[in-house]
Design brief:
12% strand, alpha/beta, 351 residues, five-stranded mixed β-sheet, two-stranded antiparallel sheet, 7 strands
Length: 351
């Protein structure tokens, strides 16, 4: 088998090639993307080929090319690949040889990669997420304009009566023009978001794992679908701690010399799923008595921001165990209250 270490860039890639059996370096070369040089090189290779690259963004065309040719593509954890090199010198050639050495030594930190269909559904969720963020930004600007004139209506500002009051405010020429444009953009954003919501609901109802998560109070189709697409096969995570860490809901830590120092959450991993979980807390605590009690206790001791993050982590742990055990919310609560139940006891000890 031919082994290729690839340092991938937007416009080009640097490769280092070796034979798996001998480990002898065969070729080091820079391949241009726009001219078709990279396509021609990989099409010329005969026999089994394995290509290793760091996890990066714009590689879908490259993955499709290798899949079409029957070559293997291994994507590695960028942080672990970088940590395996102790020298401070960094060049494209050294990076390609480092990846090649890890592949030959069977130490390449390969990561799980979603299927093309799952990645496409992720684009649906990201598109909705960005439009919702845009709608929030437009609404905040309109609230600021209203507050500057002494009009405080909170959510009622966008009701029929609130919009009438907003439109009747006496503003300067440019402020009035800004108000009109913001309202126009807000009206343009709402229909696409509603359409995307319907698409997300249809997609979530097709997946048994998402339907299972939606049995939990407060968890809707957007959060359920985003969660299952983000974590992938639940068997990848032996413990719920791993899921919390994967989503960036674990505390950062700098402990040494027998003293433990915990900081804010690490915020590593999928930012959209973490944001959705924190937003879901508002709905979950209103419908789940246990979560509401925990939230009120933490809010009193540490403030609402810390309480929201803590409940979001608890939700992630619950969702993980629901997927792993196949239990819906009713079974989750029943097992929690049963002396013989182990579901939530296990989640508590591993959280």
């Amino acid at each position: 088998m031919i082994i290729i270490g690839c340092d991938f860039h937007t416009r080009y890639q640097q490769i280092a090639t070796a034979e798996e059996t001998t480990g002898e370096l065969l070729l080091e070369r820079r391949l241009d993307h726009q001219s078709g040089e990279a396509h021609a090189f990989y099409r010329s290779l005969q026999g089994p080929v394995r290509v290793g690259i760091e996890a990066t963004g714009p590689i879908h065309w490259f993955e499709s090319l290798l899949g079409e040719l029957g070559h293997q593509l291994w994507i590695g954890d960028s942080a672990k690949i970088r940590a395996s090199e102790v020298r401070k010198q960094k060049t494209d050639e050294r990076d390609a040889r480092l990846i090649l050495d890890l592949l030959l030594a069977k130490r390449f930190p390969k990561i799980w990669v979603p299927t093309p269909a799952e990645r496409d559904i992720r684009q649906l969720l990201w598109h909705r997420h960005k439009l919702v963020g845009l709608r929030t930004m437009l609404g905040n600007q309109l609230h600021a304009l209203a507050l500057s004139q002494g009009l405080c209506r909170k959510k009622k500002l966008f009701s029929k009566k609130g919009r009438t009051e907003l439109g009747n405010l006496m503003l300067g020429p440019w402020a009035g023009r800004r108000r009109a444009k913001l309202l126009e953009l807000l009206d343009q954003v709402d229909p696409p978001i509603a359409e995307l919501d319907r698409a997300v609901l249809e997609e979530a109802q097709r997946r048994e794992d998402a339907v299972l998560l939606m049995t939990h109070p407060g968890i809707g189709p957007v959060t359920a679908l985003a969660f299952v697409l983000a974590i992938g096969p639940v068997t990848r995570f032996p413990r719920s701690k791993k899921v919390a860490s994967y989503l960036g809901l674990n505390p950062s830590e700098e402990s040494s010399g027998g003293r433990r120092r915990l900081g804010a959450i690490s915020k590593q991993g999928n930012t959209m799923v973490r944001w959705l979980l924190i937003e879901t807390v508002h709905h979950a605590v209103r419908q789940d008595p246990e979560l509401r009690q925990d939230y009120q206790r933490l809010k009193f001791r540490r403030g609402h921001a810390v309480a929201k993050v803590a409940i979001a982590r608890k939700l992630a742990v619950r969702m993980y165990w629901m997927l792993r055990s196949g239990a819906d919310y009713a079974q989750l609560v029943r097992r929690q209250g049963s002396p013989g139940g182990t579901l939530m006891n296990a989640s508590s000890s591993l959280a």
